[in-house]
Amino acid sequence: MLYKVVKWGAPVLETPAKPVTNFDTPALRQLVEDMFETMYANKGVGLAAPQIGISERLAVVDTSAGEDPAMRRVLINPSITIREGRIVDEEGCLSIPGFRENVARAATVVVEGKDIEGNNVRLEAQELMSRAFQHEIDHLDGILFLQHLSPLKRDLIKRKIKKLIKAGEWE
Ligand code: NI
User: Fold this and answer.
1) Residue 96: which domain range?
2) Which of 10, 36, 78, 121 is 20–30 Å from 62 (CA)?
């Protein structure tokens, strides 16, 4: 099932999500499948549950955008335990379509969390996957990439979005 991706302005995007507590259930498996499907349909490389209006600490990432099943990653109740290096690169967000900006992120991260069965998992990531993990975990904390920009740049983008909202072009 495809979900609608909620866009900037929806309170759920700026609300810290609650931990997942029920593991190894058909509902959780279905939700993860639907999140991958929704992400691929929108040509994204990451999608966090708050972006489909579900305030739970769950995100999916696939830096191959559906080309390579081995690249699928599921982050449940994730936290970043190690950050190394720093890389500035362009970043976008399915909830803020049409806007891409340079964002500084750690080059390498180690993320610890749970898998669908509730087992502890530890994932190490570099390059685009590292960036995607940081971006998606930000979503679970109610943080959008705009918060990593200068106040000037952030306000400029927010003004442009508010114009789009007014014109009925932001839904
Ligand atoms: Ni995003």
Assistant:
1) 11-166
2) 10
- For ligand 1, the distance from its centroid to the CA atom of residue 147, given in whole angstroms, is 12
Q: What does the CA dihedral 40, 43, 46, 51 come to, rounded to 10 degrees?
A: -90
Q: What is the CATH number of the domain that holds 150?
A: 3.90.45.10
Query: How many domains would you assign to the chain?
Result: 1
Catalytic (active-site) positions: 136
Q: What is the pLDDT of residues 84-100, one digit of tens each?
A: 999 999 999 999 999 99
In a domain, 5, yes or no: no
Query: Are the C-beta atoms of 63 and 135 separated by less than 8 Å?
Result: no
Which tens digit of pLDDT belongs to each residue from 102-138?
999 999 999 999 999 999 999 999 999 999 999 999 9
**pLDDT tens digits, one per residue of 10-44:** 999 999 999 999 999 999 999 999 999 999 999 99
* Predicted TM-score of the model (pTM): 0.97
Ligand 1 centroid, distance to 83 Cα (angstroms): 20
Residues with CB in 5 Å of ion ligand 1: 93
Does residue 1 fall inside a structural domain?
no
Q: Is 8 exposed, middle or buried (0-12, 13-18, 19+ CB in 10 A)?
A: buried
CA of 25 to the centre of ligand 1 (A): 26
